[in-house]
Design goal:
single chain, 2 domains, Aspartate Aminotransferase, domain 1
Amino acid sequence: MNVSKRVSLVPSSPIRKLVPLADEAKKQGKKVYHLNIGQPDILTPSVFFDAISHHREPVLKYTHSQGDPNLVRAIQRYFLQDGIHFDFEDIIVTTGGSEALIFALTTVADPYDEILIPEPFYANTGSFMNQTSIVPIPVPTKAETAFHLPTKEEFESKITPKTKAILLTNPNNPSGAVLTKQELDMVTALCLKHQLFLIVDEVYRKFAFDGKKSISIGHIEEAKEIAIIIDSVSKRYSSCGARIGSVQSRNKLVMSSILKLAQARLSVSTVDQIGAAKLYEIGDAYIEDVRQEYLRRRDIIVKHLLQIPGVRYEIPEGSFYMILGLPVLDAEDFTKWLLTDFDVHNETVMLAPAKDFYRTPGAGLNQVRLAYMLNCNELEKAMEILKQGLQVYQSLKK
Ligand SMILES: Cc1ncc(COP(=O)(O)O)c(C=O)c1O
């Protein structure tokens, strides 16, 4: 018996598929520094745990499909602090940004419709498109232009009668690019011209560096009717396990449609929503500290990369990821080798091969995605191991 074609198209997660090799290395007593995964190590704010540990109700009930009203209001205030007004019904709480993405995709496109997505892109977004039988149409971005958007003409050349939306991730995972107002204006104008929705995944919005402003699509008035924003507490509040995200749009038809999807899955975890509402009250000082910490880590990485010959990279402008072009033919082979055949004093590093962040055949073969989720000391060691690993691997391949 066969499983569906839809599910067969879903690729394995590039971040997780080499985990068995890392597990084997650990079994053999090696320490593995994880530069592959975007799981923050910053402590989750204690207000989350305080709120959930004090929660008592005789029966742990479903909550509203739209979300616990307290949390919806907290999200509303969060956007308003940045000058973005959403009506109460413009916000729906979801099980992570992941469910928000699935809801948005399901709402804007039918099976075999197409959505344009700058490439490289967050691999799971591609999986969600396969899962909903939507065809992702990659719009290549290049290291030479710091993974910023290509021209309007390049986008336009990919638009067909089946195109229903453009999906951006800003700041970007995996490249770290932060889009400019001009880029957002360009894509907005394009969407308006071709009557497309504009989904913007903003789960990393607060993490922009070097004075770069990460502008929400909610700030672009012209995008009001077409924009759908994806948000999440996972990264901003270091609360991936809370599984709380949200989808926002001022398009009432979009939101009443998403509400039907939300009603079908009944509700999001009641307890996690209670904790998450407190996270939104923490304020910008906490987020600023976290941003500074990621900035320190980014700078450590860049300092080490300067000493590694042949590595191609752009200094990431935001999020906590970057793409490295390595002086190897097959970055996945190198990544596996680091886990199976290499160590420095019994320690090695794990990277995410970047080819799975692309859908264009052959793209990204020599690239890896690096996530800077380790503390500064560990990062220093991990980068030194990476440097030595590259030297040894290159000498073996000569
Ligand atoms: C760009 C992007 N969007 C969405 C998500 C989904 O996160 P969550 O479901 O934990 O909110 C992630 C997680 O890594 C991500 O990188």
